[in-house]
UniProtKB/TrEMBL annotation:
Protein name, as recorded: DUF2963 domain-containing protein
Domain DUF2963: 122-161
Organism: Candidatus Phytoplasma oryzae
Sorted UniProt keywords: Membrane, Transmembrane, Transmembrane helix
InterPro entries attached to this UniProt entry: DUF2963 (IPR021348)
Taxonomic lineage of the native organism: Bacteria, Bacillati, Mycoplasmatota, Mollicutes, Acholeplasmatales
């Protein structure tokens, strides 16, 4: 029953032995090759200490710089000392090019072949990223121990080396920073149109530059993040080399509805403030003010109050800072027809406006119905009544008051139809039951 050996059987057995030993040799070869590659990878990194290695947690997590899970690779050291790493299975696929002399690592994509997508500059602590067109799209600058990002440059993906955005960090936790954005239509690389400041990762305020003479500042609510608080627009004056506000927009708590708008005219030195209802659209009232060089303060010259529709005028208050008087015009519901006018004068004794004249109009809003004049010094109030034409006097009532003896005298003058000739005069004192 024993197998009879012949030349054919010996040949088969011998081939089997050769194949087995060849398999063992291949395994040993692959093990040695892969182990040497891993050793080379370790030797490539700067191993002074963990902080000096480019494999910090921040870089690995955010930028994925060191890819330790690549397919097995083999290395070639060129005559100039540059190390090139290739994919083990695709011998023509370049993975990395390492220049230890300059401290630069170039990383390449697999498809398309030899496409540079990242450059690591260890000496200057800079990581540069490229797109599929070979254009530089981002530069990341780190601190000395490569643990914190200092700032980031972003470039136009359609145009190589065209800087469009800069991000600068203030803190190690990357919660405080500001972003500079460049105008892509401007050829000047140093000119930026927008700066956004962040605090605790939330927008603090934004600066926008229309041109070199205009700035727009948008401030956000700290108590209610990501909601606008107010906007200031400023323009540059060559007279004093200073930016002057031309418009301020204040928002309600929702950050969208307008609360009020302040508009400034640097030449006329006036200010117009428009207040809005809760809807942010309907006007409540408007205040016009003028600047006084005497006290460096804005003084109101006109206040316009609107009815509920936000269009029809309810009343207008006009102030004369020099004469220290105030004229208030009240309107009917149509917002056009005058109802009455009150003229007041300011008293420095009590810092208050006191009425000196009131003019009441008829239904047409033009013809005068009556006029009341008040003389505070003489303690006299005069009321003139007019006919429907608004010109012809109907009667005049004068009221005299004496605080010394509590004397209150009323004098009534009645005119003829022509409004000039006196028809009769009545004098009375209601407190003393006196009539004449």
């Amino acid at each position: 029953m024993f197998l009879k050996w012949n030349k054919k059987n010996y040949s088969i057995f011998f081939c089997f032995i050769l194949l087995f030993f060849s398999f063992l040799v291949n395994i040993f070869f692959f093990y040695q090759l892969f182990f040497s590659v891993e050793q080379n990878r370790v030797n490539i990194n700067y191993s002074d200490n963990k902080k000096n290695e480019f494999s910090s947690n921040l870089l690995n997590q955010d930028l994925n710089i060191n890819d330790s899970k690549l397919f097995p690779i083999y290395e070639i050291t060129r005559e100039d000392g540059i190390i090139e790493q290739y994919n083990l299975f695709l011998s023509k696929q370049l993975v990395k090019r390492i220049d230890n002399l300059k401290g630069i690592i170039f990383e390449y994509k697999k498809k398309p072949d030899d496409l540079l997508f990242r450059k690591i500059d260890k000496n200057n602590h800079i990581v540069t990223q490229y797109n599929d067109n070979g254009n530089k799209i981002k530069e990341i600058f780190y601190n000395q121990d490569e643990s914190v990002i200092n700032y980031i440059y972003e470039f136009n993906p359609d145009k190589d080396n065209d800087l469009i955005k800069c991000i600068y960090y203030f803190s190690e936790d990357l919660q405080k920073y500001f972003i500079l954005e460049k105008n892509q239509d401007n050829e000047n690389d140093a000119f930026f149109i927008k700066t956004t400041y962040f605090d605790n990762g939330l927008i603090d305020f934004i600066l926008e530059y229309n041109d070199s003479n205009f700035i727009k500042k948008t401030f956000y609510n700290r108590k209610k993040p990501q909601t606008k608080k107010y906007i200031i627009e400023e323009i540059f004056s060559s007279e004093d080399n200073f930016f002057h506000p031309i418009k301020k927009t204040f928002f309600q708590l929702d950050g969208q509805s307008i609360k009020k708008i302040e508009e400034f005219n640097h030449i006329k030195q006036n200010k117009i403030t428009t207040f809005y209802l809760k809807d942010g659209v309907t006007k409540k009232y408007i205040i016009e003010e003028i600047f006084s060089s005497e006290d460096n303060f804005f003084h109101p010259i006109k206040k316009t109050f609107f009815q509920l529709d936000g269009q029809s005028i309810k009343k207008i208050e006009e102030f004369n800072h020099i004469k220290q008087n105030k004229i208030t015009t009240f309107y009917l519901k149509d917002g056009v027809t005058k109802k009455y006018i009150i003229e007041e004068i300011f008293s420095s004794e009590d810092n208050f406006f006191h009425p000196i004249k009131k003019t009441f109009f008829q239904l047409d809003g033009q013809s005068i119905k009556k006029i009341k004049k008040i003389n505070k010094e003489k303690k006299v109030k005069t009321t003139i009544f007019f006919l429907k034409d608004g010109v012809t006097k109907k009667k005049v009532i004068q009221e005299f008051f004496s605080p010394e003896n509590n004397h209150f005298l009323i004098k009534k003058i009645f005119f003829e139809i022509n409004g000039k000739n006196i028809r009769k005069i009545k004098i009375s004192n209601p407190r003393q039951n006196y009539k004449k």
